[in-house]
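Interim report, section 4.2 (structural modelling).
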Amino acid sequence: MAEHKVVILGTGPAGLTAAIYAARANLSPIVVEGNEPGGQLTLTTEIENFPGFSNGILGSDLMDNMRKQAERFGATFRDGWATSVDLSHRPFSITLNEVETLSADALIISTGASAKMLSIPGESEMIGHGVSTCATCDGFFFTKKRVIVVGGGDSAMEEATFLTKFASELTIVHRRDTLRASKVMQERARNNPKIQWALDMTPIAVKSENNHVTGLEVRDNKTGQTRIIETDGLFVSIGHSPNTNFLNGQVATDKVGYIVTNYRNSATNIEGVFACGDVMDSHYRQAVTAAGSGCRAAMDVEKYLEGAFVHDWSMSLT
Ligand code: NAP
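Predicted structure of the assembly:
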């Protein structure tokens, strides 16, 4: 089994930026694509807030460019995703697709978080065509349009409040008649005159015509009756799941499953294992913040492999 200096798991902006930096540091990183190559940005269309692209750039193009940039400096990409790891000894063992094992002196985990979806008919085929999971990324495209936000947590309140800057009409659809969101976030949304409420409604289907979203079919939980709320856009805001199951508890996470790093660098509780991007950041979740954290992780790995990295887990935020 070939031993690699560094293996990077995931190819979102964090993993690819880590790959660019690690490759330029002559660490010949092996980058494992993951089960959503390119990460969440490939699920959206135009990215208008990634610095350096004054006319915006397609999410898939941005990720292609980052990947080519990493390859240019010597990063090697591997299909598949990590199904398990053994971090109890060094070099670490990383098993891909339950069959092949890689060996690495250092590991960068950038496996991201996946937005939870409603899993109702019509939803998956309209992602990027009216169905979105990111108001910051896609809100602008709904200027003067009707929008629905699904969810009753803080994210849904925050996304809905943000989207009222653009949308002509906005309805929050939530499956219960009470919200999960904190009082302050609820009040902010409730005091926003642009927000209408469809509580105690279960989403059952996304309606579309000619590749445009036209409505959300919901069932009134009290009466059992169904109706269609017309809309041009649907923002699904029902939470994210960090992709950390494959770690099987070997790396410290918070109660939701996000990896906890040292607050001053990208170190995890295990010496030689670093984390970056949405898998350790449930708050900012932006392409640019993920890319920045990927840079930090690669610089930390470089120091670690030189024997110059001071591992101090006491500085974590746990
Ligand atoms: P969350 O608190 O888990 O809320 C998810 C919401 O989506 C819940 O209302 C849930 O309904 C609903 N939901 C889940 N699955 C659903 C389904 N299949 N169909 C319909 N609805 C579904 O997630 P979050 O809002 O993303 O927040 C995550 C964490 O980040 C929280 O701790 C939150 O406080 C924090 N956060 C903080 C801020 C802030 O302070 N600025 C902003 C965003 C997030 P039920 O209520 O019925 O379960």
